[in-house]
Specification:
alpha/beta, five-stranded antiparallel beta sheet, about 25% helix
């Protein structure tokens, strides 16, 4: 077997295999290689005695500072030979974190909860990063070995078992990957070559356009293809792509999209790239034929912010702009609230408009909550901790009756009582204290007392963040779960609810009332504290689903406070409620 590594500036490279050192031969373009038999290995550069793990490692059984271990992808017994994939249009995404999804916090234990997701109606499971990071517990965004599955989760075989089990149940798998920075502990890439180029808000960023960057870009693309090809993942969620600094004519994202499309054709199933971007620029999800990068979708934080303000009333920080009257309806229509308009939080104009005539809504993910919007609050409190069940129901109805791709954060579907807090477990005491102090200082500036901000290094913080599955069957929580199931079933039974055409979608916001028109269907939400009567511009109809005691009178509907109803007009192609509609009544 041959060990190889890219170290273009090294004058000598050795590989230590099972404790024995071997000289490596210099090859073309900075690559070194050695034919040696063995299992555990690490590289030594020049005269240094530091044994460094392989930057392209797939297996780190002893953590990010230990040696890498040989891994044979062909040895795993896949059972998903008939899997044809899951396309994003019409789908429902479920975001989860392996370490807190189950009490055990492992990939194998997560398999035992997949039936819950199938029963809920999910089609795609989005897994927060599983790449290796220093410590045992963390969100995964401090990864330093991007191709190795975190060993406390179960390592590479466990991730393959998870993906294989998802496919067996008809679930696609999306994996969150982080290419915009590396974590603060175990980031040895710069010892091997010119991988780094400056710092961003989270750590060292990659050299994507400077000298030596060809191989750095190849490192990213090969990592992405490896997850999709070798681990059978169905798509990637690309973290904070606005922090990828690339001044080349062909941006890394476009290069990645081209290669992923080619792989998709080769494996015969759809492969999806979803960006998280703060740019408010639809160029990312515009086809390359139209001058875009060709990604399939991106998160829609503006819509989240509008929903959050409308439901919670919070207007501090970046939420302030989204308190503008009519902001929710405008953003539902136009995708971005900031579209070449003034952003007070940024102190400048931001974004540009989306051409809703040509871009479908499924390219934008809609959500009430996600790991960032919960975990980056001081105490990690979920929306259900402060918002009434009625308003939560309205928010969920807006998401699932919109033309966007709905996404749920784990536990949201039963209004989980557990918070999801920021946590890490760096073994280095100085680093751990720096993270702890920085977190408290950050929120102290916003008026939080030191004792109110959970210690991210305390194992109790992780435990508090784990889902309590038993409560999903408890009164109150069960009602929310039934509602989420009904909304997803309704979306599936009535194609007009999943219709992604933004130019065929209309919405009005009249005081506390929001009215969405979806073909022959109407979603009407009363976000206010008193009952309302709202005209529906339909001659007659019936209620398919409601969260309160509603009444249809002539061409109007009366809704109690904080409630919604989905109404179907008579005279449509389906002149009776479907069985799915009737079972969805509440």
């Amino acid at each position: 077997m041959t060990f190889s590594v890219w170290a273009p500036k090294a004058e000598r490279v050795r590989v230590r295999v099972d404790g024995v050192e071997h000289a490596m031969a210099a090859g073309a373009e900075g690559w070194w290689s050695a034919a040696v038999d063995g299992t555990d290995y690490a590289f030594l550069l020049d005269d240094s005695d530091d044994a460094l793990p392989d930057p392209r490692s797939v297996w780190q059984p002893d953590g990010v500072h230990g040696p890498s271990r040989r891994y044979d992808h062909s040895a795993f017994g896949w059972t998903d030979g008939g899997w044809t994939g899951r396309a994003l249009p019409g789908g429902v995404v479920y975001e989860l974190h392996i370490g807190t999804f189950t009490p055990e916090g492992t990939l194998d234990s997560a398999i035992g909860k997949l039936d819950h997701l199938v029963d809920l109606g999910v089609t795609l499971v989005e897994v927060l990063p599983v790449n290796s990071f220093d410590g045992t517990a963390g969100w995964g965004y401090d990864g330093v070995l991007w191709g190795a599955v975190h060993e406390p989760y179960g390592g590479p075989d466990a991730f393959k078992r998870f993906v294989d089990a998802c496919h067996a149940k008809g679930l696609g798998v999306l994996l969150d990957v982080v290419y915009n920075h590396l974590g603060p502990s175990g980031a040895y890439l710069d010892r091997f070559g010119p991988y780094f180029a400056g710092q961003n808000d989270w750590g060292p960023g990659l050299n994507l356009d400077g000298s030596g960057s060809d191989e750095v870009r190849r490192y990213v693309v090969d990592n992405a293809l490896g997850w999709l090809r070798d681990f059978h993942v169905d798509g990637l969620r690309l973290d904070a792509v606005h922090a990828l600094l690339d001044r080349r004519a062909t941006h890394l994202l476009e290069e990645l999209a081209v290669e992923v499309d080619a792989l998709s054709a080769g494996v015969g199933r759809p492969l999806t790239l979803i960006a998280e971007s703060d740019l408010n620029d639809a160029k990312l999800v515009t086809a390359r034929e139209g001058g875009g990068y060709g990604l399939q979708a991106q998160w829609s934080d503006d819509l989240h912010h509008c929903l959050h303000v409308a439901l919670t009333g919070e207007t501090h920080g970046y939420y302030a702009d989204f308190a503008e009257p009519g902001a929710l309806a405008r953003t539902l229509r136009e995708v971005f609230f900031h579209a070449g308009t003034w952003s007070s939080f940024r102190g400048r104009t931001h974004g540009r408009p989306v051409d809703t005539r040509v871009l479908p809504g499924y390219r934008f993910l809609a959500y009430l909550q996600n790991h960032d919007q919960i975990g980056n609050r001081a105490t990690g409190d979920r929306m259900s901790a402060t918002v009434s069940p009625g308003l939560l129901a309205c928010g969920a109805a807006i998401v699932f009756c919109s033309p966007f791709t709905p996404m749920i954060f784990m536990g949201e579907e039963w209004a989980a009582s557990t918070p999801w807090q920021f946590f890490a477990s760096f073994p280095d005491p100085e680093l751990a204290n720096a993270v702890r102090t920085g977190r408290r200082r950050e929120f102290g500036a916003h008026g939080w007392g030191e004792a109110e901000v959970p210690d991210p290094m305390d194992p109790a913080t992780v435990e508090r963040s784990k889902l309590l599955w038993a409560e999903a069957d408890e009164p109150g929580h069960r009602d929310v779960l039934d509602l989420y199931r009904s909304l997803i079933a309704l979306r599936r039974a009535h194609p007009e609810l999943a219709d992604p055409r933004l130019d065929e979608f209309s919405v009005e916001q009249m005081g506390t009332v929001l009215l969405l028109r979806r073909g022959d269907l109407r979603l009407v939400c009363n976000l206010g504290a008193t009952a309302v009567t709202q005209s529906l511009d339909v001659a007659s109809g019936w209620v398919l689903l409601a969260s309160g005691d509603v009444a249809l009178v002539d061409q109007a509907i009366r809704l109690p406070a904080e409630s919604f109803a989905v109404v179907q007009a008579t005279g449509s192609s389906s002149n009776q409620p479907t069985s799915a509609s009737r079972s969805a009544r509440s």
